[in-house]
Structures are given as C-alpha cells and as structure tokens.
Amino acid sequence: TVVILDFGSQFTQLIARRVREAGVYSEIHPCTTPVDKLRELAPRALILSGGPSSVIEPGAPTLDMGIFDLDLPILGICYGMQLLSHLLPGGRVVSSTDREYGRSEFTVAAASPLFDGLPTDRGLTVWMSHGDRVKSPPEGFSVLGSTPTVDVAAMADPARRIYALQFHPEVAHTEDGSLILHNFLFKIAGLTPGWSMSSFVASQDAALREQIGDRHVVCALSGGVDSTVVAVMLHKAIGKQLHCIFVDNGLLRLNEGEEVAAYLREHFDLNLIHVKAADLFLSLLAGVTDPEEKRKIIGRTFIEVFEREAKKLPGVEFLAQGTLYPDVIESVSFRGPSAVIKSHHNVGGLPDIMKLSLVEPLRELFKDEVRKVAVELGLPDFIIWRHPFPGPGLAIRIIGEVTPKRLDILRRADKIVQAELQASDWYRKVWQGFAVLLPLKTVGVMGDDRTYESVCAVRVVDSIDAMTADWSRVPTEILATISNRIINEVKGINRVVLDISSKPPSTIEWE
Ligand code: XMP
C-alpha cells in the first residue's frame, strides 16, 4: 500500500488513481493521521498531496513529525514539497502574491532515479498550481530541476529517499507525469505492481464468502453499473443467498431497468424482485415543483418500498451497497464546511432501521475501476458504459410538475439523445448526456400550422468525477440530428436548446 496524505488538493484523488493504474494499491488519509495509525496501515511509501493553504500561515495543515522516523520513501507534491522545506531543518519557503497556475517548462538539473527515462535535451511541459515556493531546500537535499519562475522545482535527499516536486505529476497535462510517479514507486520505493482488477475480484470473492457464510443478503438494483457489479459479484460468491430488489419508481428512462433486469435474469439466474411502484411515486409527486421537495419525496418513498419488500424476505442479515471509494475518503477541507447544494440520495443511502450489516464490496474502488471490474465479470457494454443516472431520475429533469404526460415527452426526447450519442460513439467519450424538459412553451410552425409547445434542453458534459464538469463540444452535425429528430418525432416539443454552462457555477443536472 501507498498512503497518500491529503492536504486538501483537488488533485488528491487523481494521485491515488495514478498510483493504482501503475498496479500499486493506494489509499488516501487525512494529513492529520497520527503516526501510530500510519504504522498500523504499514504503507511501503508515502505521498504528500498538494493543498490550498500556505505553510507559512498560522494554523496551516502540517504533519506528525514522527512520520520521518518511519524511514519510508516520501514524495511531496506542491504543498507537500513546501511543507517538507518548512518542517525539515535548513529549508526555507517564500510566499508570493502571484499564484502560478497552468503550464510551465521544467528543466532537469541533476540526474536522479526519479527522472529516469525523461528527455534530457529539452524542457518538459508540467502543470503548476501554487503561490508559495521553496527558496532553499532543507539540509541534505539537492536541487533536481527548475522552471523559469521557480528555481527549486524539484529536490531530493536520496539517502533518506525523500523526493519533492513543485509541479503536479498526477495531472494529465504534465508530460511524462506517470513515468515520474512510476519511477518513485518502482525505482525509489522498490515496489512491485500487483494490484489489478482481476486480483481484486478474486480476493473480494473470497472475502465475501468468508464474511457472509451461509447467510442471506439483500441488495437494491438500480440498473446502473455500480449496483449491477455488486449484484453480480455477490451472485458469483453466494448464489441464491442473494436477493435483489429493483424498485421501478416510474422515473426511469425508456426501457431502462427492464433491460438490465432481463439481462440479469437471463445470464445469472438471480433472485430478482421487480417492484412496480410508478403509481405510488407519481401520486406523491403530483403538484410538487420544488427540486428539494421532489428529491425528499422520492428518497423517502424509495426507502419505504424497499424496506417493505426486504422485510418479506425471511432471515436476511446483510444489505449490500455500491458505495465507492470517493464516498468513504475522509475528506479534509481547509476551506470551511461546504454548503449542501443538493441533497443527493443514492440507491446506496439506506438508513440502518433494518438493522442489517453492510456489505460494500466496491468501497475501495474508483468509478473507472468499477468499470474495469465489470469488464472482468464479463458484463456487456450497455451496462459498463451506462451514463450515471440520478436516483430521483427524470423527476429532476422535468422542471416544474412531474406528470405522466410530461414524463412520456421527456422519455422520448431523452431516448433520441441517447441513441444519437451512441450511434456516433460520443456516448463513451462524455460523462453524461441527457434531455431536460422546461416549463416553458414557445411558438413554432409546423406545416402551415402554428404550434405552441414545450422547450427541451440538451445537456452533454465532460467530467472525471462529477465534481466539476464542462459542456462537451459535441459536433454540430450530431446536435442538428438530435434537434431535428426531437422536434419531428416527439409531439409536445417544438424547440430544442443546448446547455453551454460548466460546473461550477452551474451544476450538471438542472435541479
Ligand atoms: P450535479 O447536478 O450535482 O450532479 O452537478 C452531479 C452528479 O450527480 C448526479 N446527481 C444525483 N445522483 N441523486 C443521485 O443519485 C441525486 O439526487 C442526484 N442529483 C444529481 C448527476 O446526475 C451527476 O452525475
């Protein structure tokens, strides 16, 4: 294991993913983790992340000094590098009022195993994001490279195996960033790659059998890749001791749900309870227009329906959930508590009223790793690459009241967006693409007649983790086809607009 100590950088998760891509298991822990806890984790190397603070400020996040006695290889990145200079004798950090953000050119100044294989005859494009910089490295350290604005852009004390970089090797814009991380892991820390999704599947299978024994497990299937992977892993491990409940809330996409249910029935012979609860959900949503109110009603009703069904199953002792690693990382925020923007409810978020123990086989994984597990399990592309879909479903993509008629209109428009993205292979390039039905009517003309009908917005975004997103630059011909088809084929819509906002300041969904 490599432990990444988090100082609050937006890139911390990216470091963990890069290390895992190299075949080495990594975990993120808060920078406040005491040395005793670290000793228990028994890591083979430490990486100190970047962070938004300045080491010079009073109260800035720091490290348990005992960490240096563990004799572990350490890589400090950005804030991590500044902190090393600040804490170790002889180092000096200066602050600057200008933040440097973006590309820079790094020149290697001294040979080091960290830079093995990098071009030496030219500079390297690297990604910077910092205010402070190291003025002089601590005793025992030498300077390994610089950029036009930063004299000490890389430093090392090879005897103690402590290395540090001012730029971000984990960011894709840094040329050969992965190679630098590989050098740290393999040449400096002496690790060997062993973490892969096939090893993960094998070890989880054994762990699930061990944890569950001959007892029974219930899980909620949503049709998404996470819950499907959970169900299939459990099915492989415990067979008929697994009971899946699929709640059709009437807010799903056209035929979604049925497709997944049919696939699972056919290929895995699962115990699958398909609860058709559309009428209940729709009657409770009647007249409701407030987004948070919609979310609460849907979340609460889902839990009620799920519980009612689960209680009918005798002797169930476990609840399986598709919790992912980003949900369990203890996040450190040095910018103060963040406001609740949307009260997301996931199929995973069931309360503990049922007194069931949790089974969370994906707790250690990032989303892209879950997709790799799905490949490993032999699941089909239509499940593996399915775009994320919110728990409240189409209800939060119908601005205003959710009615059967408006649901039908949106479903048909959305189906066209899905189909055209898939036909052009943009479906896999983007994070999410969908249609939104607006509570707005405009005038149009069809044949010789005047129409007065709804507006539909098309939203397609690129993202790596849904925390930030940008609107996808889908080719205009594809957009033209989507627009033509929706207006011609979906009665009730006579105008299509494109959402060109990024997150932040907008969000991905409209509600
Ligand atoms: P936003 O709109 O917050 O969406 O930018 C970020 C990601 O989360 C999904 N989303 C939800 N997922 N319950 C969910 O399970 C919700 O209430 C919910 N709201 C948004 C959204 O589709 C995007 O992927």
Task: Describe this structure in a few short sentences.
A hairpin with a 7-residue loop joins strand 18 (449-462) and strand 19. The protein has 511 residues and is α/β, with parallel strands linked by helices.
Kindly state the percentage of residues in helix.
25-40%
Uncertain runs are: none
Widest sheet: strand order? 2-1-3-4-11-10-9-6-7
Could you tell me the CATH topology label of the largest domain. Answer: Rossmann fold
Summing up helix and strand content along with how strands pair, one would put the structural category as: alpha/beta
Name the beta content range.
15-25%
| Assigned CATH class of the largest domain | Alpha Beta
Distance between the termini: 40 Å
Which cofactors or ions or other ligands sit in this model? xanthosine-5'-monophosphate
The CATH architecture category of the largest domain equals: 3-Layer(aba) Sandwich
